[in-house]
What does this fold into?
Amino acid sequence: MNQINIILLFLYLILFSNYTFSQYKITVNIEGYKNDTCILGYQIGQSTYIAQSLYKKNKKGAFVFEGEESLLGGLYSILIKPDNKYFQFIISNDEEQKNLILSTRIDKNPAIELTENLVIKNSPDNKVFNEYKNFLGKMRLKSDNYSSKLNEAKSQNDSVSIKRINEYFAGLDKTVYDFQNTLAEKYPTFLSPKLIIGGRNPIVPKHLTSRTEIFHYYKNHFWDNVDFSDERLIRTPIFKDKMNTYLEKLTPQTVDSIAKSCEYMIDKALEYKNKKVFQFFAVQLLNRYAKQEVICMDGVYVTIAQKYYCTGLAYWLDSTKLENICDDAAKMAPLRCGKNAPEIRLKNINDSSYVSLYNIRKKFVAVYFWDPTCGNCAKVSKKLIPVYNKWKEKGFEIYGVCSKPWKEVSLCRKKEKETEMTWVNTTDDPYPLAWVKKYYDLRSNPFIYLLGENKEILYKRISAEQLDEILERELGKNK
It folds into this structure.
């Protein structure tokens, strides 16, 4: 190999190395910290996860976090022992993490001093964020100074002073707002302005006065300042906090309304065409309603699964996991609240006559799946008996399904007699009984569905106590 080829090979190796291994190096100096444990964490929502742990300082007394692959941009933390006190900083891009130096000190109160004494070198993004915090501190001092004056003016009913001070506060708000906008315009690729702007709430125009108009404007503009194209925000509180507020404070707590809000957020992520942000919202929202304890909210799970997972958009899942999600959604879809319940036609355990669910003409019918060998079923049955006796003459019936097949019907009869379950109890041969359980997606006993007069599903997975409360609300007026 001649000299030119050797040089070219050497240059190639250097270029390949720089391209493949984007390293990070974060040096942490904490004066006054005697422990040998230091943890680098990253944030998703309000949760912190461990990126790397160190158990030894270098010769200069510093902790040095290093890796061969760049850390993903976001909000990071340094945690110390024994109480996991921490301070936070931004990792904006690959370049800023190659030689990031964090220095602070502690004396008596780590919770305060770690942040107050923090100095960050070699990071323009953190410098901008620190400038903003200092600016905000000055504005807060000005606001605090006038808060006492406002209270005094209110106590004296001094309308002129109250108006003047409120105008002063409005001026401070505008100053902060303008400063935030300036940062966003001056540093469009930095993460810190996106954190600052993203956490901002909508400003409602003064000409809107009715509560309805204000609410709709606020909700419609709630996401205006959030950059759905920037996946670094996944590793900050912004997306998760806004998601929680949008669902819990700005959305009526009905299945249809919550499903629409979920679709709005996921569609917005799709619109900005960042695959990771779309994945974040799709996964977070599906998981949120996968094991939902609130009655009927599994309908939200069905909506998300069938629209985004079962249409080929969930690129991150293998075929087996995707098939399981779609199978679950398909089973749950016809059992959503508001849908008509599947017909049941099983044998009465006492006289072998077939009983049709749809032939029971009552205002409310509870379909109760139970098993005579199930301890929890016995407890629920005991609680159901007084509820049934209380409401059976006022438009309520229970259609019981004993989970033992006909050849074991004696077990059903024995338990019915012991517990004095006087409602309709049924079972059948294994084949039809299995189909009923399949139609109702029965995965465990006991399980209660409450149906309306037309056999529409009103509630499911409810307790005897909840059933009594519902019937009290609906039938109590007929006492």
Notes: Residues 3-22 have pLDDT under 50 and may be disordered.
